[in-house]
């Protein structure tokens, strides 16, 4: 038997240890390859949606490459630990360390080549279906299957180089291993004496500081805390697993009534070893799982936004221009012509909005005429406004503002024209998108509006008012091709100039929705596959650690059975040990993610009045169910190995 044959047979003889590594590597290659197939597609559009797809693919590729390299490196270290006795026998029989390193590299490359080939084959077979999904998402005319060398070469280069470099580095990091250490296996010491009380307390403080910053974060302070929160939580998590958990267990051991009860002494002693020697693994699993949960949370936020988009944007088309806007007539006529040409029914309302200064706050206030507002409300089939002279009504700028403003009464004077007003009500429904009007907007009677003859005191530095044209369209998703030229002028000015310079602004809810829906659908497709890779890898980390010490733990359990441990007590002891390894890092990841989502919810509620609670709860529930099923599957296999 040649050396290559020996290495090849070693791989399949130890497939139990390699199985999780192979599946995670295979899935990473699979996802990377289908992204590469789309990224190099010769017929993909290069417009906005095309750029979104390219940007999403590139980002996903980078994340997968970085994570895959790290995963392979960690896996290699786990393999060296899991096969310590096998290596000891080989060294004892005369194999030198260079041959041992060569053996590990060959075995790793065998797994790498098989995972690359299978990932590419399945990826290419799945590409046609993937292209069909992307074509529908991005509204492309055609996205046929193609054959090019670029995706194949890129995928092979990225992953084969990862296997070569990292397997070599893993061997270099263990040059001083002694045969006696291999024979003895992992050395277990009194782990409770190795923690630092200062670091244990510091871990809790850092995590609590991160949570505290999350609780006080607002839309104005989010950029200040964006870097601080992850740093505090990451460092705190590391110290939590290396020191805090051991400190807590050490304190529990001091309570004899708890520690000496039944088999708790045995279970706690084993958990001390698990926590001490798996602290880095727990730290890694927590971070990876948190990234997966946050990815799903971002997708949930986008899902909530798309599902509530019609409530946030009740107006199909909106054109807003300065009083002397030279494009007004031309643009409004072109919009009307396009709507009628496409057979789209609409209800247009023209507003003349005046800016005045409130004596109550000394701030500008936007004033709407009662008749203009009623014209729009009639098209919505909402209750009409009926105001007397001297009365005014708040216009809500968000759902939350309705509850706040209905309890507010303000007596003010429009200073420029000396118009006395009493504002003691708010319209009970939102009828303008938040982006159109300011938070200081009111409706006054026609009689009072006619009195606004004097110009705004801040003019000409601030526009004294504006014209607003709204097009209420029952099914505004049909308007995505209306006003494209005007929309392009607005977008071009935003891109070219640092400040907006056009005398008008145009917004097409149907067009924006098509962009948002396509972007969300594509990012969801990307995110689901990336999250699947993350979760599979994090589960593999736990799998490696459990099976690395399986032989040693089997001997321990055999000894306990001989001294009288019942089968029921054995299952209970195994369950406790496995629960720590499974649910401690994932539980902490859930808590981290919950505070992160609290920040996202706070900002979204302030900016767009969106709630993602329902979507996040559903995502967390699904994750929890998956982890519980995975736990019982591993527990079942573990018990069968221990008893076998």
Structural notes for this entry:
This protein is 66% helix and 9% strand. The longest helix is centred in the N-terminal third of the chain and has 42 residues, at 97-138. The protein is elongated. With 644 residues, it is of the alpha+beta class. It has a 9-stranded mixed β-sheet with strand order 5-6-4-7-3-2-8-1-9. Helix 10 packs antiparallel against helix 12 (264-277) and helix 21 (550-562) crosses helix 23.
The 3D shape can be described as elongated
| Strand residues, percent | 5-15%
- The assigned structural class equals alpha+beta
What summary fits the major beta sheet? 9 strands, mixed
Structure keywords:
9-stranded mixed sheet; 644 residues; 23 helices; alpha+beta
Write the layout of secondary structure elements.
Elements: H1 3-13, H2 15-39, H3 48-82, H4 84-92, H5 97-138, H6 149-172, H7 179-184, H8 197-216, H9 222-225, H10 228-253, H11 256-259, H12 264-277, H13 279-307, H14 309-312, E1 317-322, H15 328-341, E2 347-357, E3 364-369, H16 370-380, E4 391-394, H17 399-405, E5 410-414, E6 419-426, E7 441-444, H18 446-449, E8 465-472, H19 484-496, E9 504-508, H20 509-548, H21 550-562, H22 567-607, H23 613-643
Parallel strand pairs: 3-7, 4-6
Antiparallel strand pairs: 1-8, 1-9, 2-3, 2-8, 4-7, 5-6
Helix pairs in contact: 1-5, 2-3, 2-5, 2-6, 2-20, 3-6, 3-20, 5-6, 8-10, 8-22, 10-12, 10-13, 12-22, 13-20, 13-22, 13-23, 21-23, 22-23
